[in-house]
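Narrative of accomplishments. A recurring question from our advisory board has been how the design workflow behaves on a single, concrete structure rather than in aggregate. To address it, we present the structure tokens for one chain from the evaluation set, followed by the sequence designed for it. No filtering or post-editing was applied between the two.
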């Protein structure tokens, strides 16, 4: 089945991006176009999360990061923020059986300590119950900001220097102080809804990521869009600052 999918979309299974990160944008606009409350757009986006996780797992992607809630999202109306927190809690619990069945491991990045207690409890359960899974690593960026991650890393480095004056600060060292140093840098970043910006997402990690932008709003994003993004990724030549051969 996977071979047919790869052939149909012109994808080389030997050259898949190891880590795909997605800026899930357009829930509010999707709801507005349909005359629905914004929260209905977020709820519709859950099915896109399910479809994307299942597709990524099935075709052999190793890491998938979804920009779930940014540090700036707290400025949204309180009723929307509270509804999102309720949704995160319920989603983490309701999807556990499916994630375990598909050998998916959950990881979280962001300022987790600032999240509501009920969400932190759900996170702890999800991470613990999937910790032994060996398939796709599914990373939720919750209360996450790229600038904040860099600031938090610098603070940790300063604390470490008090104990080790000889600590050498370079790119390799800095990486060790990011939220999760074991996650490889994203090869491909996808943004839905057609916007052309990072929105404070993985600023450090995205230095040499390839970007694929689609006008598709997140609630309409499905496996075919993911496969198209991978196909386009494989047509690009990554030079990492070098020159063409």
């Amino acid at each position: 089945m996977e071979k047919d999918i790869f052939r149909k979309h012109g994808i080389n299974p030997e050259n898949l991006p190891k880590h795909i990160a997605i800026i899930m944008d357009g829930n509010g606009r999707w709801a507005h176009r349909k005359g629905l409350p914004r929260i209905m757009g977020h709820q519709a986006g859950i099915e896109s999360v399910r479809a994307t996780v299942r597709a990524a797992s099935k075709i052999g992607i190793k890491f998938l990061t979804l920009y779930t809630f940014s540090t700036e999202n707290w400025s949204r109306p309180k009723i929307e923020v509270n509804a999102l927190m309720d949704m995160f809690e319920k989603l983490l619990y309701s999807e556990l059986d499916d994630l375990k069945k598909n050998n998916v491991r959950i990881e979280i990045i962001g300022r987790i300590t600032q999240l509501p207690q009920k969400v932190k409890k759900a996170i702890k359960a999800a991470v613990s119950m999937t910790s032994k899974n060996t398939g796709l690593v599914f990373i939720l960026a919750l209360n996450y900001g790229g600038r904040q991650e860099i600031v938090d890393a610098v603070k940790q480095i300063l604390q470490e220097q008090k104990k080790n004056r000889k600590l050498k600060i370079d790119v390799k060292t800095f990486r060790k102080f990011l939220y999760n140093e074991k996650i490889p840098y994203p090869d491909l970043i996808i943004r839905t809804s057609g916007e052309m910006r990072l929105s404070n997402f993985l600023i450090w990690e995205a230095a040499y990521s390839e970007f694929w932008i689609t006008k598709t709003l997140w609630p309409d994003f499905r496996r075919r869009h993911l496969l198209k993004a991978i196909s386009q990724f494989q047509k690009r030549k990554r030079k990492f600052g070098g020159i063409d051969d």
